[in-house]
Amino acid sequence: LSPVCLGSLRRAASINAEYMGLAAENNVRLKEKKKDRGLTFLYPNLAVKNEDEPLMRKKRTFRFIKQGNYEKKAHAMRAQWLARDLERIGERESGDDDDEDYDDDSDIENPNDIALTSGTVDLIPEVEWWDLELLNGAQYDESFDMQMITSLIEHPVQIKPAVPQPEIASMPLFLTAREKKKIVRMRKKEKQDAITDRIRLGLQQPPEPRVKLSNLMRVLGNSAIQDPSAVEKKVRAQVEKRKIKHTLHNAERKLTPQERKLKKRAKLKEDTSNETQVALFRVTDLSNRKHRFKIDVNAQQYNLTGCCIINPKCNLILIEGGPTGIRKYTRLMLHRIKWVVKKSIKFFWST
Fold first, then answer.
1. Under 8 Å CB-to-CB from 339, ≥6 apart: which residues?
2. What DSSP state is assigned to residue 332?
3. What's the pLDDT tens digit per position in 281-327?
4. Phi-psi category of 306—alpha, beta or left, where left has phi over 0 and alpha has psi -120 to 50?
Protein backbone atom coordinates (compact mmCIF):
# COMPACT_ATOMS: atom_id res chain seq x y z
CA LEU A 1 0.00 0.00 0.00
CA SER A 2 1.16 3.52 -0.81
CA PRO A 3 1.45 6.03 2.06
CA VAL A 4 -1.33 8.67 2.32
CA CYS A 5 -0.59 12.28 3.15
CA LEU A 6 -3.40 13.60 5.36
CA GLY A 7 -2.24 17.20 5.22
CA SER A 8 -2.60 17.45 1.44
CA LEU A 9 -6.14 15.93 1.61
CA ARG A 10 -7.22 18.52 4.17
CA ARG A 11 -5.93 21.35 2.01
CA ALA A 12 -7.73 20.00 -1.11
CA ALA A 13 -11.02 19.66 0.82
CA SER A 14 -10.82 23.23 2.17
CA ILE A 15 -10.09 24.62 -1.36
CA ASN A 16 -13.04 22.72 -2.80
CA ALA A 17 -15.39 24.06 -0.08
CA GLU A 18 -14.25 27.63 -0.65
CA TYR A 19 -14.80 27.24 -4.45
CA MET A 20 -18.32 25.85 -3.98
CA GLY A 21 -19.24 28.69 -1.60
CA LEU A 22 -18.05 31.35 -4.05
CA ALA A 23 -20.00 29.73 -6.92
CA ALA A 24 -23.22 29.71 -4.84
CA GLU A 25 -22.78 33.39 -3.92
CA ASN A 26 -22.25 34.32 -7.60
CA ASN A 27 -25.42 32.48 -8.65
CA VAL A 28 -27.48 34.32 -6.03
CA ARG A 29 -26.07 37.68 -7.14
CA LEU A 30 -26.88 36.92 -10.81
CA LYS A 31 -30.47 36.01 -9.95
CA GLU A 32 -30.90 39.23 -7.95
CA LYS A 33 -29.47 41.33 -10.78
CA LYS A 34 -31.79 39.62 -13.27
CA LYS A 35 -34.80 40.39 -11.05
CA ASP A 36 -33.74 43.99 -10.43
CA ARG A 37 -32.97 44.67 -14.11
CA GLY A 38 -35.88 46.43 -15.75
CA LEU A 39 -36.62 45.35 -19.32
CA THR A 40 -37.39 48.20 -21.72
CA PHE A 41 -39.47 47.66 -24.91
CA LEU A 42 -40.11 49.95 -27.83
CA TYR A 43 -43.80 48.92 -27.96
CA PRO A 44 -45.60 48.55 -24.63
CA ASN A 45 -47.76 45.68 -25.92
CA LEU A 46 -44.58 43.56 -26.23
CA ALA A 47 -43.70 43.89 -22.53
CA VAL A 48 -43.58 40.68 -20.47
CA LYS A 49 -46.17 40.67 -17.70
CA ASN A 50 -44.62 37.87 -15.71
CA GLU A 51 -40.98 36.96 -16.28
CA ASP A 52 -41.35 33.55 -14.70
CA GLU A 53 -44.01 32.44 -17.20
CA PRO A 54 -42.85 31.59 -20.72
CA LEU A 55 -43.89 33.76 -23.64
CA MET A 56 -46.96 32.14 -25.22
CA ARG A 57 -48.92 33.38 -28.20
CA LYS A 58 -52.61 33.89 -27.56
CA LYS A 59 -54.92 31.59 -29.41
CA ARG A 60 -57.07 33.18 -32.08
CA THR A 61 -60.73 32.62 -31.36
CA PHE A 62 -64.00 33.76 -32.89
CA ARG A 63 -65.38 37.05 -31.60
CA PHE A 64 -69.12 37.00 -32.13
CA ILE A 65 -71.11 40.23 -32.16
CA LYS A 66 -74.19 40.19 -30.00
CA GLN A 67 -77.56 40.59 -31.62
CA GLY A 68 -78.81 44.18 -31.66
CA ASN A 69 -75.37 45.77 -31.20
CA TYR A 70 -75.47 47.76 -34.44
CA GLU A 71 -79.15 48.61 -33.91
CA LYS A 72 -78.28 50.26 -30.59
CA LYS A 73 -75.52 52.28 -32.27
CA ALA A 74 -77.93 53.42 -35.02
CA HIS A 75 -80.58 54.48 -32.47
CA ALA A 76 -77.95 56.39 -30.51
CA MET A 77 -76.76 58.24 -33.66
CA ARG A 78 -80.34 59.13 -34.63
CA ALA A 79 -81.07 60.42 -31.13
CA GLN A 80 -77.87 62.50 -31.21
CA TRP A 81 -78.75 64.08 -34.55
CA LEU A 82 -82.35 64.69 -33.45
CA ALA A 83 -81.20 66.48 -30.28
CA ARG A 84 -78.78 68.57 -32.36
CA ASP A 85 -81.54 69.55 -34.83
CA LEU A 86 -83.92 70.46 -32.01
CA GLU A 87 -81.24 72.58 -30.39
CA ARG A 88 -80.67 74.49 -33.64
CA ILE A 89 -84.39 75.06 -34.13
CA GLY A 90 -84.66 76.45 -30.59
CA GLU A 91 -81.72 78.81 -31.16
CA ARG A 92 -83.26 80.08 -34.41
CA GLU A 93 -86.61 80.78 -32.70
CA SER A 94 -84.91 82.63 -29.86
CA GLY A 95 -82.95 84.73 -32.37
CA ASP A 96 -79.50 83.68 -31.23
CA ASP A 97 -78.10 82.41 -34.56
CA ASP A 98 -74.47 82.11 -33.68
CA ASP A 99 -72.62 79.98 -36.17
CA GLU A 100 -69.75 79.67 -33.75
CA ASP A 101 -71.81 77.40 -31.46
CA TYR A 102 -72.00 74.57 -33.91
CA ASP A 103 -68.98 75.13 -36.09
CA ASP A 104 -67.35 72.14 -34.45
CA ASP A 105 -70.00 69.79 -35.88
CA SER A 106 -69.89 71.23 -39.40
CA ASP A 107 -67.40 68.61 -40.52
CA ILE A 108 -69.70 65.74 -39.53
CA GLU A 109 -71.99 64.52 -42.28
CA ASN A 110 -75.56 63.72 -41.37
CA PRO A 111 -76.48 60.31 -42.80
CA ASN A 112 -80.18 61.28 -42.83
CA ASP A 113 -79.57 64.23 -45.21
CA ILE A 114 -80.16 63.16 -48.85
CA ALA A 115 -78.78 65.44 -51.54
CA LEU A 116 -81.20 66.15 -54.39
CA THR A 117 -79.87 65.38 -57.85
CA SER A 118 -79.42 68.32 -60.13
CA GLY A 119 -81.00 68.34 -63.60
CA THR A 120 -84.38 68.45 -65.28
CA VAL A 121 -86.95 65.75 -64.67
CA ASP A 122 -88.64 64.20 -67.72
CA LEU A 123 -92.36 64.79 -67.54
CA ILE A 124 -94.85 62.14 -68.61
CA PRO A 125 -96.08 63.02 -72.14
CA GLU A 126 -99.76 63.30 -72.87
CA VAL A 127 -99.49 60.76 -75.69
CA GLU A 128 -96.79 58.16 -76.11
CA TRP A 129 -94.96 58.20 -79.42
CA TRP A 130 -95.98 54.66 -80.32
CA ASP A 131 -99.68 55.59 -80.05
CA LEU A 132 -99.58 58.68 -82.27
CA GLU A 133 -100.20 56.72 -85.47
CA LEU A 134 -103.31 55.08 -84.00
CA LEU A 135 -104.99 58.34 -82.82
CA ASN A 136 -106.73 60.96 -84.91
CA GLY A 137 -105.55 63.72 -82.59
CA ALA A 138 -102.86 64.42 -80.01
CA GLN A 139 -104.81 63.14 -77.00
CA TYR A 140 -106.14 59.84 -75.82
CA ASP A 141 -109.67 61.27 -75.66
CA GLU A 142 -109.77 61.42 -79.45
CA SER A 143 -111.14 58.49 -81.47
CA PHE A 144 -108.85 55.83 -82.85
CA ASP A 145 -108.05 55.49 -86.50
CA MET A 146 -109.80 52.19 -87.25
CA GLN A 147 -108.07 51.83 -90.62
CA MET A 148 -104.79 51.24 -88.80
CA ILE A 149 -106.28 48.42 -86.72
CA THR A 150 -106.58 45.16 -88.67
CA SER A 151 -106.46 41.44 -87.98
CA LEU A 152 -103.17 41.10 -89.86
CA ILE A 153 -99.80 40.77 -88.27
CA GLU A 154 -97.06 42.97 -89.66
CA HIS A 155 -93.74 41.22 -90.18
CA PRO A 156 -90.90 43.67 -90.76
CA VAL A 157 -88.82 43.06 -93.85
CA GLN A 158 -85.38 41.72 -93.05
CA ILE A 159 -82.72 44.05 -94.38
CA LYS A 160 -79.36 42.58 -95.26
CA PRO A 161 -76.40 44.29 -93.57
CA ALA A 162 -74.41 46.69 -95.70
CA VAL A 163 -71.18 44.89 -94.83
CA PRO A 164 -71.31 41.10 -95.28
CA GLN A 165 -70.52 39.24 -92.11
CA PRO A 166 -67.39 37.07 -92.36
CA GLU A 167 -67.99 33.38 -92.03
CA ILE A 168 -66.58 31.77 -88.94
CA ALA A 169 -64.03 29.28 -90.18
CA SER A 170 -64.21 26.05 -88.25
CA MET A 171 -60.95 24.42 -87.32
CA PRO A 172 -60.55 20.99 -88.95
CA LEU A 173 -60.38 18.09 -86.54
CA PHE A 174 -57.19 16.11 -87.04
CA LEU A 175 -57.30 12.58 -85.65
CA THR A 176 -54.37 10.40 -84.74
CA ALA A 177 -53.88 6.94 -86.22
CA ARG A 178 -55.07 5.37 -82.98
CA GLU A 179 -58.27 7.44 -82.98
CA LYS A 180 -58.97 6.57 -86.63
CA LYS A 181 -58.64 2.84 -85.90
CA LYS A 182 -60.96 3.23 -82.92
CA ILE A 183 -63.63 4.93 -85.09
CA VAL A 184 -63.38 2.12 -87.68
CA ARG A 185 -63.82 -0.49 -84.94
CA MET A 186 -66.85 1.31 -83.54
CA ARG A 187 -68.51 1.54 -86.97
CA LYS A 188 -67.94 -2.17 -87.60
CA LYS A 189 -69.37 -3.00 -84.18
CA GLU A 190 -72.48 -0.87 -84.80
CA LYS A 191 -73.01 -2.55 -88.17
CA GLN A 192 -72.67 -6.03 -86.65
CA ASP A 193 -75.01 -5.12 -83.78
CA ALA A 194 -77.65 -3.98 -86.27
CA ILE A 195 -77.42 -7.33 -88.12
CA THR A 196 -77.67 -9.23 -84.81
CA ASP A 197 -80.79 -7.29 -83.81
CA ARG A 198 -82.46 -8.05 -87.17
CA ILE A 199 -81.68 -11.76 -86.73
CA ARG A 200 -83.15 -11.76 -83.21
CA LEU A 201 -86.35 -10.10 -84.44
CA GLY A 202 -86.69 -12.64 -87.25
CA LEU A 203 -86.28 -10.07 -90.04
CA GLN A 204 -83.17 -11.75 -91.42
CA GLN A 205 -81.96 -15.33 -91.69
CA PRO A 206 -78.86 -16.14 -89.66
CA PRO A 207 -75.76 -16.70 -91.83
CA GLU A 208 -74.38 -20.19 -92.34
CA PRO A 209 -71.45 -21.15 -90.13
CA ARG A 210 -68.10 -20.47 -91.78
CA VAL A 211 -66.86 -24.06 -92.02
CA LYS A 212 -63.29 -24.85 -93.10
CA LEU A 213 -61.28 -28.04 -93.13
CA SER A 214 -59.41 -26.78 -90.07
CA ASN A 215 -62.55 -26.24 -87.91
CA LEU A 216 -64.63 -29.03 -89.41
CA MET A 217 -64.89 -31.21 -86.29
CA ARG A 218 -65.37 -28.28 -83.91
CA VAL A 219 -68.29 -26.72 -85.86
CA LEU A 220 -70.24 -29.77 -87.05
CA GLY A 221 -69.51 -32.13 -84.18
CA ASN A 222 -71.35 -35.50 -84.33
CA SER A 223 -72.57 -35.04 -87.92
CA ALA A 224 -68.95 -34.97 -89.11
CA ILE A 225 -68.29 -38.30 -87.38
CA GLN A 226 -71.31 -40.06 -88.92
CA ASP A 227 -70.47 -39.34 -92.59
CA PRO A 228 -67.04 -37.68 -92.88
CA SER A 229 -66.81 -37.98 -96.69
CA ALA A 230 -70.11 -36.17 -97.33
CA VAL A 231 -69.25 -33.49 -94.77
CA GLU A 232 -65.83 -32.91 -96.35
CA LYS A 233 -67.42 -32.60 -99.81
CA LYS A 234 -69.92 -30.05 -98.45
CA VAL A 235 -67.18 -28.03 -96.77
CA ARG A 236 -65.07 -27.92 -99.94
CA ALA A 237 -68.12 -26.71 -101.88
CA GLN A 238 -68.66 -23.87 -99.35
CA VAL A 239 -65.01 -22.86 -99.58
CA GLU A 240 -65.19 -22.76 -103.38
CA LYS A 241 -68.41 -20.75 -103.21
CA ARG A 242 -66.82 -18.14 -100.94
CA LYS A 243 -63.80 -17.92 -103.24
CA ILE A 244 -66.01 -17.34 -106.33
CA LYS A 245 -68.00 -14.69 -104.45
CA HIS A 246 -64.80 -12.88 -103.50
CA THR A 247 -63.54 -12.94 -107.10
CA LEU A 248 -66.84 -11.58 -108.45
CA HIS A 249 -66.86 -8.83 -105.84
CA ASN A 250 -63.36 -7.71 -106.89
CA ALA A 251 -64.36 -7.86 -110.57
CA GLU A 252 -67.34 -5.55 -109.90
CA ARG A 253 -65.13 -3.01 -108.16
CA LYS A 254 -62.45 -3.15 -110.83
CA LEU A 255 -62.26 -0.05 -113.05
CA THR A 256 -62.52 -0.20 -116.81
CA PRO A 257 -59.53 0.97 -118.89
CA GLN A 258 -61.33 4.24 -119.69
CA GLU A 259 -62.16 4.88 -115.99
CA ARG A 260 -58.60 4.04 -115.00
CA LYS A 261 -57.30 6.53 -117.54
CA LEU A 262 -59.63 9.27 -116.29
CA LYS A 263 -58.67 8.55 -112.68
CA LYS A 264 -54.97 8.82 -113.48
CA ARG A 265 -55.54 12.02 -115.44
CA ALA A 266 -57.51 13.56 -112.57
CA LYS A 267 -54.74 12.57 -110.18
CA LEU A 268 -52.11 14.32 -112.30
CA LYS A 269 -54.24 17.43 -112.78
CA GLU A 270 -53.21 20.25 -110.47
CA ASP A 271 -54.62 23.61 -109.50
CA THR A 272 -52.18 26.19 -110.88
CA SER A 273 -54.18 29.24 -109.71
CA ASN A 274 -52.20 29.43 -106.46
CA GLU A 275 -48.75 28.26 -107.57
CA THR A 276 -47.06 27.82 -110.95
CA GLN A 277 -43.48 26.71 -111.44
CA VAL A 278 -41.19 27.11 -114.46
CA ALA A 279 -38.19 24.98 -115.48
CA LEU A 280 -35.58 25.44 -118.24
CA PHE A 281 -33.40 22.70 -119.76
CA ARG A 282 -30.58 22.91 -122.31
CA VAL A 283 -29.97 19.86 -124.49
CA THR A 284 -26.99 19.56 -126.83
CA ASP A 285 -28.52 17.03 -129.24
CA LEU A 286 -32.23 16.40 -129.98
CA SER A 287 -31.82 14.50 -133.24
CA ASN A 288 -33.28 11.30 -131.77
CA ARG A 289 -37.02 11.05 -132.58
CA LYS A 290 -37.71 8.88 -129.49
CA HIS A 291 -36.37 11.60 -127.19
CA ARG A 292 -38.53 14.26 -128.86
CA PHE A 293 -41.61 12.01 -128.54
CA LYS A 294 -41.02 11.41 -124.82
CA ILE A 295 -40.50 15.13 -124.19
CA ASP A 296 -43.78 16.01 -125.95
CA VAL A 297 -46.03 13.21 -124.64
CA ASN A 298 -44.91 13.46 -121.00
CA ALA A 299 -45.52 17.21 -121.02
CA GLN A 300 -49.09 16.56 -122.17
CA GLN A 301 -49.63 13.82 -119.58
CA TYR A 302 -48.40 16.02 -116.71
CA ASN A 303 -50.58 18.96 -117.92
CA LEU A 304 -47.55 21.12 -118.65
CA THR A 305 -47.22 23.91 -121.21
CA GLY A 306 -44.17 25.47 -122.80
CA CYS A 307 -42.02 25.47 -125.89
CA CYS A 308 -38.97 23.79 -127.38
CA ILE A 309 -36.37 25.74 -129.40
CA ILE A 310 -34.37 23.44 -131.69
CA ASN A 311 -31.00 24.56 -133.02
CA PRO A 312 -28.12 22.50 -134.44
CA LYS A 313 -25.77 23.82 -131.77
CA CYS A 314 -28.06 24.22 -128.75
CA ASN A 315 -31.67 23.23 -127.85
CA LEU A 316 -33.77 24.86 -125.11
CA ILE A 317 -36.87 23.35 -123.45
CA LEU A 318 -39.05 25.69 -121.35
CA ILE A 319 -42.02 24.26 -119.41
CA GLU A 320 -44.44 25.55 -116.80
CA GLY A 321 -47.12 23.95 -114.63
CA GLY A 322 -47.85 22.59 -111.17
CA PRO A 323 -45.12 21.60 -108.67
CA THR A 324 -45.82 17.86 -108.93
CA GLY A 325 -45.75 17.87 -112.74
CA ILE A 326 -42.53 19.91 -112.81
CA ARG A 327 -40.89 17.54 -110.34
CA LYS A 328 -41.80 14.43 -112.35
CA TYR A 329 -40.84 16.05 -115.66
CA THR A 330 -37.44 17.05 -114.22
CA ARG A 331 -36.85 13.44 -113.22
CA LEU A 332 -37.76 12.36 -116.76
CA MET A 333 -35.28 14.74 -118.33
CA LEU A 334 -32.37 14.10 -115.95
CA HIS A 335 -32.70 10.38 -115.14
CA ARG A 336 -35.26 8.42 -117.15
CA ILE A 337 -34.18 9.41 -120.68
CA LYS A 338 -30.90 7.72 -121.63
CA TRP A 339 -29.04 10.40 -123.56
CA VAL A 340 -26.29 9.41 -125.98
CA VAL A 341 -23.88 11.69 -124.17
CA LYS A 342 -24.49 11.86 -120.42
CA LYS A 343 -23.49 15.51 -120.19
CA SER A 344 -25.57 16.55 -123.18
CA ILE A 345 -28.42 17.92 -120.93
CA LYS A 346 -28.15 20.66 -118.35
CA PHE A 347 -30.79 21.81 -115.87
CA PHE A 348 -30.68 25.61 -115.76
CA TRP A 349 -33.20 26.81 -113.16
CA SER A 350 -36.67 26.24 -111.73
CA THR A 351 -39.08 28.53 -109.86
1. 283, 285, 291, 345
2. I
3. 999 888 889 999 999 999 998 989 999 998 888 889 999 998 989 99
4. left
